[in-house]
Amino acid sequence: MDWTRGPPIGKGSFAAVYLASSATGELFALKSTDLSSSTSLQKEHCLISQLSSPYIVKCFGSGTTFESRKPVYNVFLEYVSGGTISEQIARQGGSLDERLIQSYARQILLGLSYLHCNGIVHCDIKGQNILIGEDEGLKIADFGCAKWVESSKFSKEMFAGTPAYMAPEVARGEEQSFPADIWALGCTVIEMATGSNPWSEMKDPASALYRIAYSGDVPEIPAWFSDSGKDFLSKCLTTDRKERWTAGELLQHHFLRENCGEIREFIRKSPTSVMDQGFWDLLEVSDSSRNATDISSNLESPANRINGLLTDAPSSSGWAAAEDDDWVTVRCGAEVDGCRNSVKQDSEQDAIASESDSFWGEDIQTSASVEDPLFDRFNNGYTDPSIRNPNPSWLKGHTVRQPCTHPSSGDHLLPKS
């Protein structure tokens, strides 16, 4: 199958995301990284290929190509053109209407309920990882930090995510399970209401993380929020994870069951082919965005952009900075030896940024173990012949690895170790 890699449209936890099209003009998203450093992306594919929900971005398969004489690992994903919630907040002037927040929170919870019922924790819920599709429909994306809670190698020996959205128990290094996603949802609702990341009033990252872990404080709830909205957030942001409401309970909360009324129309349809006008509109927006990024990246160092996440910026540049090519990524996992040694600085000048600053700004992943029997089974080519090919017709003829599974997995989407 012939396909063409298009412009970059985003960045996941472990790879870049591109717009791509098949020979027949059908559009899809392509998440790619060098094969030599693709362990995390392969794990992500192994998990997400098992999922099937209208609130989760679809995965069509994976394959390896050779580009510039290097093997590249690619994951084929559903293309969702409306951008992220964080980008939508910027387009709407820094906050969203409460009726729209109700709709968005409900859809995120439907996606989380599906994941949690199948034993999966996303670990990195935030506005940047929620995509907007047709008719304001949301899809949870970027499963680079996600884990299957019944995998003994990952449930207690690993924490992952974006520090500003971490639940207190995660910040303390305790077990990261379903309640952590609910806390992150509450932080995301605050992001939608204020346009700022949680704890934006904190200037020192280390102090902020300590405050999250041990103070018993919760992010400030906007005063203009309705009483039912404030009560909803209080159920999400309970510091005791045992008292925090579940996704199923929150779906019954009166904040989400109230009549949302008429919501402003602003979402464009997702183009499915290069023949759609929306596709060309998207390219125009992408070109202008890249030009703006090139300019801003010359003016701001990664350290300054990290600090920008902790302050209330007058524009949306603080959110866009997280997607810039020059952003310092802090990520620790099976691909590196030691957390601190994995920090890649852009220059000696940027290296003066403190470890705590880098830690605060973006999603991270740490693990005490590099063993993963679930992934080993996938990486050794284990497949279940009873699984139907989930790939669209335009992927026929392309070498695509089938999703891992286990014939005796019962009610679980993923195999038990």
UniProtKB/TrEMBL annotation:
<feature type="domain" description="Protein kinase">
    <location>
        <begin position="3"/>
        <end position="256"/>
    </location>
</feature>
<keyword id="KW-0547">Nucleotide-binding</keyword>
<dbReference type="GO" id="GO:0005524">
    <property type="term" value="F:ATP binding"/>
</dbReference>
<dbReference type="InterPro" id="IPR011009">
    <property type="entry name" value="Kinase-like_dom_sf"/>
</dbReference>
<keyword id="KW-0808">Transferase</keyword>
<keyword id="KW-0067">ATP-binding</keyword>
<comment type="similarity">
    <text>Belongs to the protein kinase superfamily.</text>
</comment>
<dbReference type="Pfam" id="PF00069">
    <property type="entry name" value="Pkinase"/>
</dbReference>
<protein>
    <submittedName>
        <fullName>Mitogen-activated protein kinase kinase kinase 2-like</fullName>
    </submittedName>
</protein>
<dbReference type="GO" id="GO:0004674">
    <property type="term" value="F:protein serine/threonine kinase activity"/>
</dbReference>
<feature type="binding site">
    <location>
        <position position="31"/>
    </location>
    <ligand>
        <name>ATP</name>
    </ligand>
</feature>
<feature type="region of interest" description="Disordered">
    <location>
        <begin position="381"/>
        <end position="417"/>
    </location>
</feature>
<dbReference type="InterPro" id="IPR017441">
    <property type="entry name" value="Protein_kinase_ATP_BS"/>
</dbReference>
<keyword id="KW-0418">Kinase</keyword>
<keyword id="KW-0723">Serine/threonine-protein kinase</keyword>
<dbReference type="InterPro" id="IPR052751">
    <property type="entry name" value="Plant_MAPKKK"/>
</dbReference>
<dbReference type="InterPro" id="IPR008271">
    <property type="entry name" value="Ser/Thr_kinase_AS"/>
</dbReference>
<feature type="compositionally biased region" description="Polar residues">
    <location>
        <begin position="381"/>
        <end position="392"/>
    </location>
</feature>
<dbReference type="InterPro" id="IPR000719">
    <property type="entry name" value="Prot_kinase_dom"/>
</dbReference>
<dbReference type="GO" id="GO:0007165">
    <property type="term" value="P:signal transduction"/>
</dbReference>
